[in-house]
Amino acid sequence: MTARTFIRCGHLFDGLSGQAVPAQTLVIYGDSIDWVGPTAQSPAMGEVDTLIDYSDCFVMPGMVDCHAHISYGNALTQEDIDLYASMEFRALRSMVAAQAILKSGFTSIIDPACSGMVAPAVRDAVNVGLFQGPRITASGRALTTQQGLYDWYPQWIGVPEASTGVMTTSLDQAIGLIRQQAKDGVDAIKLTMDGIHARRNGGGLIAAYTQAETHAMVDEIHRLGKLAVVHARGREGALYSARAGVDIIYHASSICDDGIQAALDKDVVLCPSLALLVNNIDFHEPTDPSAPWWPDIQRRELNTASRNLQRAREAGVRFMSGSEAGFAVTPYGEWGAKELEAHVRYLGFTPAEAIVCATVESTRLLRERDRLGGLAKGKLADIVAVKGDPLSDITVLQRREAIHAVLLGGRPVDLSPAPTHARHFSEFSQGMWHRVYDRAYVNANFPREAAAGVPA
Ligand SMILES: [Zn+2]
Fold it and tell me: Based on C-alpha coordinates, what's the Rg of the chain?
């Protein structure tokens, strides 16, 4: 008889009841949960079984970061992301990035836009057992236009081969790239829906693709069995995406009532990704090359997003949780759980709702979705044991020492720090930010964060 693992839980938050229940036991068999219930009614342990004692912990499902760019390298600049590192170096670095995210309690991620095929390669290397890493639902390069993100550089440079975006100048070309990426093994295809030009009189950003183009691309992505995910902060991009029935809209800050209705009709999920906005505000310094305009833009967007996304939520639109890890202000494994705090602070979630969103709702589109989504019999044993009570203080989840243990498919994860803070992790070309905001620096320089208790 194969051994089982019995886990005694001080409190168990299974993600399904919305409550933390005291004195519970989980029984793990293989990579999944075999039994869950009150310790008093627990099956008897056999001689070969092992016991893990989390009786002083808050035990919950592993979190999901639905917006992690593992190939970005904690970038200080756009050039950092696109230009300076070789694809081979990026792949190796991305593995460490993924592991750093896992060590912080996130057992699954979605990577929407990477260099080359780096994210699917890291996914596969993890899945065949070469490395321990989180479960990864991966895209490749994001499709864009000359009006979209990723076409940052002058026309005489264009979108380089090493960019995380890929240029499309016609619908035929976009359909061809969708088919190519599907053949190459992506789980999701990312479309850049925000343009760079704004309509007059505060009409917002003009979408990078037309409604008809968006429909045609999304239909082809779905025909090939892939997820359609989009970047759309602007009203028009969000509206076109929702009408076309994409799976995930990232940001959706300026989504309008028509967009909300279309999202409801087509079961479109919103992933606000507020942690990046919040950190851009919290960590901005006068020495930053982007001072002073950058934090002002971020503050305005946070206000807009807070207003519109709360309306969307009240209307019944579904949400996922994603931090947009990969930039200098959102280094891997450090601020993922700040998204849960942002959901509470800016979107009106209770801490329990924010945890359910990040642990259950956020599994609904993952590769392993049929075996994830709460701690129940038959589900994969992706588990976090927390020292503290995130229901009374959601920021507990941001504290490294509060993440007592992480189990991935029932196997303990090595929580020793990943070397992602090293200065050479990013290529450091020219700056948006003048440094990486790791916890040690923030605690020494930002009294409010230090007082909130996020020790390095
Ligand atoms: Zn993104």
Answer: 21
Residue in 44, 58, 61 with CA at minimum distance from that of residue 4: 44
How much is the average pLDDT of 333-346? Answer: 97
C-alpha 325 – ligand 1 centre gap (Å): 8
Q: How far is the CA of 401 from the centre of ligand 1 (A)?
A: 28
Using the mean position of ligand 1's atoms as its centre, give its distance from the Cα of residue 233 in Å. Answer: 11
pTM (predicted TM-score) = 0.92
Work out the burial of residue 41: count CB atoms within 10 Å of its CB; fewer than 13 is exposed, 13-18 middle, 19 or more buried: exposed
Distance (Å) from CA 275 to ligand 1 centroid: 12
- 8 CA distance to ligand 1 centroid (A)? 38
**Parallel/antiparallel/unpaired status of strands 50-61 and 383-386:** antiparallel
- Helical (H) or strand (E) element with 216: helix 211-223
CA distance 69 to 292: 26
Q: Which amino acid is at 431?
A: G
Q: What are phi and psi of 439, to 5 degrees?
A: -65, -35
**Average per-residue pLDDT in the chain?**
93
Distance 31 CA to ligand 1 centre (A): 31
Structural domains of the chain, ranges and CATH numbers in brackets: 63-371 (3.20.20.140)
Using CA atoms, how far apart are residues 240 and 444, in angstroms rounded to an integer? 45
Distance CA 424, CA 434 (A): 14
- Burial of 320 per CB tally in 10 Å (0-12, 13-18, 19+): buried
8 A C-beta contact, residue 107 and residue 421 = no
Most confident of 244-253, 277-286, 422-431, 443-452: 244-253
Mean pLDDT to the nearest integer, 117-130: 98
Neighbour count for residue 308 (Cβ, 10 Å): 22
CA of 24 to the centre of ligand 1 (A): 38
85 DSSP 8-state letter: S
Laid out side by side, the sheet with 135-138 consists of 63-65, 106-111, 135-138
- Give the mean pLDDT of 220-248: 98
d(CA 208, CA 193): 5
pLDDT of 425 above 80: no
Q: Between residues 365 and 426, which one has the greater pLDDT? A: 365
**Which pLDDT does position 114 carry in this prediction?**
96
Burial label for 273, CB within 10 Å (0-12, 13-18, 19+), is buried
Range in 115-124, 331-340, 416-425 with the lowest mean pLDDT: 416-425
